[in-house]
Amino acid sequence: MSLKKLILPLGLLLLLLPTACNEKETEIGMALQDPFTLYQGTRDTISLSACTILDDSLSTVGYLAGVFGDYSDNNFGSLKAILYSQIAAPSEGVKITDQVIIDSVIMTLVIDTVYPVLPDSTPRNFHIIINQLEQPMMPDSSFFSTTELEESALCFFDDEVTFIADSLRLRLNENIYSVLRDSCSYDEFLTHSKGIAIKLADNSQTAVTVDLSASNTRLTLFYHTTTIDSTLQFIFTINSGAGHSMYYAHDYSGTPLETFATNRQDSISGTEKLYFEPLGGTRVRLNMQSFLDNFRAAHPYAVVHYAELLLPVNTDLSDTSTPVRILALKKLADGTFTYVTDANVLSNPYTYGGFDGYYDRSKKQYRLRVTRHLQELLRSGKDNGTELVIDARRSSAFRTIVNGTATDNPIRIDFVYSE
Known about the structure:
about 15% helix, 26 strands, elongated, mainly beta, single chain, 6 helices
């Protein structure tokens, strides 16, 4: 081989050497790594004490989504959900004179989700009922999931409509005309219109979530006048610019939750199953006091490196009914609740990504990072209670059941510690 032919490949090889010698580690793939592999220490498991309780005193004022529907199943019994809303005028009020001839009034409801889930673009028939409230809805009042408002005999809509995607358009009947035909100020109109109750007919087996932040969720008056023949519009507000509340009624008779039908303050043992139901339904309470007492005595100087709360979902349930996320709350000494400390820190791509309460469809479980929470409990030695709730429990009907504490694949906390 000639010298020239030898020099060329050697030169190319030398060019590659600095790159190989100076190569630095990157973060590629780190988010896929199980956090337990990042720590040196002893791995242990906490067998929890748990029960199902009612999610009582749930405020339903000021949220950007609301649910109406009627649904029942063998696990959770029946749910009746009613969405209450003011009908608000523009800030300048209403000026609809005798010259106005009403052509139609259309209510548009932008739909966020429908429970239960069906394949995309599957037509669904809803029997919707809209009544006027008996008394004006006062937005500065306290409304809870158990607060039912009286409805008047004046019905604005009672018919079946077909929903395919995005929104519902409801042509209200002429009973609404007398409510909208008036000239008054903004506040006077709120008193005059009183508000509405939106619900589904009994046994509809559906729950509908309305997007109250959408500008197209509204009431539109189409009209012409004695002097103008073309169609004109006047917009009334029923989205976030108006006051709302929701009423959620549950009947647990004949179900595993029947205890709550007669005693709302009771709890149901979580050895076999634990029940998560939104809309003023149920939540789960954990207690680790027995573990804390024993572990602190045996390991007084333990440092928790990583801890995860695992919630395996009962395999009898369909994935389509599963909520997106579970949240963890800690009870303070004064009886109030706040999110566990781990939920209030910035995400760490090495330890936090993917494990912050979201449902893992492949493993059929929820996974919550509770490292700081567990360390705080060990430091204080006192567990006032940890409670688990469905995220968006005021605005979505998705529910689930997780395995109890005495099952083959129980709810538990796996953690790594050192001393």
